[in-house]
Write a structure and sequence with these properties.
Blueprint (H helix, E strand, L loop, with lengths): L4 E5 L4 H12 L3 E6 L2 H9 L6 E5 L5 H10 L5 E4 L14 H22 L8 E5 L12 H20 L4 E7 L5 H6 L2 H14 L8 H13 L7 E4 L7
Parallel strand pairs: 1-2, 1-4, 2-3, 4-5, 5-6, 6-7
Helix pairs in contact: 1-8, 4-5
């Protein structure tokens, strides 16, 4: 990854932060992009200073995408991990909540990919993060399943449109991220994870480092394009 430039959208925490750190540790110049400037600044400070740029921008909006395009004149790899997801039964959702999820994870990344691809070399790559909910949605997670399924389908078309730039998705199962601290108590979270560990074939919960490793594989393996790479411990099978 030496002499490569990687842009990670959603880099202030969780999978995006782990991916940014992994690319940086391998010698890449990394652009960390996220909405919240304070969280982004803290995340960047935890990695290093050389070969690291932090940019506050919201990929779901036209203004945010314009900020990215104005700042980044060339790149080798683009990674999308940002998401503004909602977990509610369909009967309790409104237009704004659904469209926020769609714009943050599908529409915004799709439009930025098309706009920025001309600044990438033939050996470049674009990697989206979808999720096992595309195949195994849970009650209240239909919107998440919908956007993840859209990503898995989207990479097929973009891999053809943007060729020879490679376009792939990485699909995690349950991952230990800060998201869980926002939606469940420590006791409830550990209970859920314990039950899932007993259920999935790998008998362990995927970590953000597992996901970052798969993102690196998608970015660097020149033989992979137009596909979805699973890092779910076999969760989609049960």
């Amino acid at each position: 990854m030496h002499h490569s430039t990687v842009v990670v959208v959603g880099a202030s925490s969780g999978m995006g932060l782990a991916a940014a750190r992994r690319f940086w540790e391998r010698g890449a110049t990394v652009w960390m992009v996220a909405r919240d400037p304070e969280r982004l600044r803290d995340a960047a400070a935890g990695i290093g200073h050389e070969r690291l740029q932090a940019l506050s921008a919201d990929v779901s909006g036209e203004e945010g995408r314009a900020r990215i395009l104005a700042a980044v004149d060339r790149l080798d790899h683009l990674v999308f991990t940002a998401a503004d997801l909602v977990y509610k039964p369909s009967r309790d959702l409104d237009d704004a909540e659904v469209m926020r999820a769609v714009r943050s994870k599908v529409v915004g990344p799709y439009l930025l990919s098309g706009a920025i691809a001309g600044r990438m070399p033939a050996a470049g790559s674009i990697t989206f993060v979808s999720g096992v909910a595309a195949e195994r949605p849970s009650p209240g997670g239909s919107v998440t399943g919908m956007v993840n399924g859209a990503i898995n389908a989207m990479v097929h078309g973009l891999a053809l449109e943007l060729a020879p730039i490679r376009v792939n998705a990485v699909s995690p199962g349950w991952v230990e991220t800060p998201f869980w601290k926002r939606v469940a108590s420590d006791e409830r979270r550990e209970s859920l994870f314990a039950a899932m560990r007993e259920k999935i074939p790998a008998r362990r919960i995927v970590t953000v480092e597992d996901v970052a490793q798969m993102i690196e594989l998608a970015a660097t393996n020149r033989g992979v394009s137009g596909t979805t790479l699973y890092v779910d411990g076999g969760q989609r099978l049960v």
